Amino acid sequence: MAKYLVLSALILGLGCAPQTPRPELGAEAILNLQVLEILGPSIDNDRPLYLPHSLAINRLKEFYIADYGNDRVVKLDSNFSFVKEVGGFGTGEYALNGPSDLALDKISNVYVIDSGNRRVTRYDRHLNFISSDDSFSKDEEIKFIRPTGIDISDRGDIFLGDEGLGACYKLDQFFFYIYEFGSKSDIQPVYTPADIAYGSDNKIYVADSEYSRVFVYDDFGLLIQTIGEDILQKPSAVAVSKTSGIWVTDEETGVLHCFSYRGDEIFRWSGHGSQRLLAPTGLFVDSDDVIYIVDSTASRIFVTRPIIRK
């Protein structure tokens, strides 16, 4: 309790105004999901996508795809046309070994979880190499073991989960430790942080594929709530919309869920026929509330928009 009081005093002392509550969509407010486009497996390139895991999109609507099976990152323009790729199996600056997740900072530098090489590799917007980090600095250098999800705030802070280290971390842009959360010593630990999203509400969302829920933390790393108990089986990705809610993919069931900001499920979608989801692993929601779903097994990306009751 003392910890919460100290933090509250700090917030008040800094003169932080309370956030305006978000409008909440109720049950049946989202009528359906409209499929606008399906990308892949073939793209405007010699090689089709193969087991893509994640994607991120910048303000120019440029796409960056972690194409896990091809050990590469692919860049597409706003018309979904191929621009460039970087990678190929190996350990060098421009080589990758199973890129499983990626995130963009404010100037569109691309941070790639290079899972097989146990590192985070950073490229600029044009996929030119910047740096590669296989550790972060705390009291000593701590090596990554099994890095999983990553996201970057507009301030440049890095939020990263490492299943092998048994914790999630907030790091600065130079990979210096700020704090950890969801560690195995916590009352409610995160077991397998499949994905991390830092929302515009300054909350941290962690999809735990083993514990079958999404953990929500405040900007100090304190647990606020959990979402999806008894609903999710293997949550694989999480993304937060400013208008429609918290979106979560379930790799086990092939379902996309939407939860209200309070944590109530308000919508689910799995597609149908040739547009059915198989094993979704990646998710991104842009500023226009367009939802991009990476269906890894099918090597496709669904471009969708929620149809909301007026």
Q: Give the uncertain stretches in residue-range form.
A: 1-21
User: Which strand order spans the largest sheet, edge to edge or round the barrel?
Assistant: 1-26-25-24
Number of strands: 26
Structural class: mainly beta
Give the overall form.
globular
Average pLDDT value? 91
Please count the helical segments. 1
Reading the helices and strands in chain order gives HEEEEEEEEEEEEEEEEEEEEEEEEEE
Beta content comes to over 45%
Determine the N-to-C terminus distance: 43 Å
C-alpha-based Rg, rounded: 19 Å
Major β-sheet profile: 4 strands, antiparallel
**Relative helix content:** under 10%
List keywords for this structure.
310 residues; mainly beta; 4-stranded antiparallel β-sheet; 4% helix; globular
Q: SSE layout and pairings?
A:
Elements: H1 2-13, E1 30-39, E2 52-57, E3 63-67, E4 72-76, E5 82-87, E6 99-104, E7 110-114, E8 119-123, E9 129-133, E10 135-137, E11 141-143, E12 147-152, E13 158-162, E14 167-171, E15 177-181, E16 193-198, E17 204-208, E18 213-217, E19 223-227, E20 235-240, E21 246-250, E22 255-259, E23 265-269, E24 280-285, E25 291-295, E26 300-308
Antiparallel strand pairs: 1-26, 2-3, 3-4, 4-5, 6-7, 7-8, 8-9, 10-11, 12-13, 13-14, 14-15, 16-17, 17-18, 18-19, 20-21, 21-22, 22-23, 24-25, 25-26
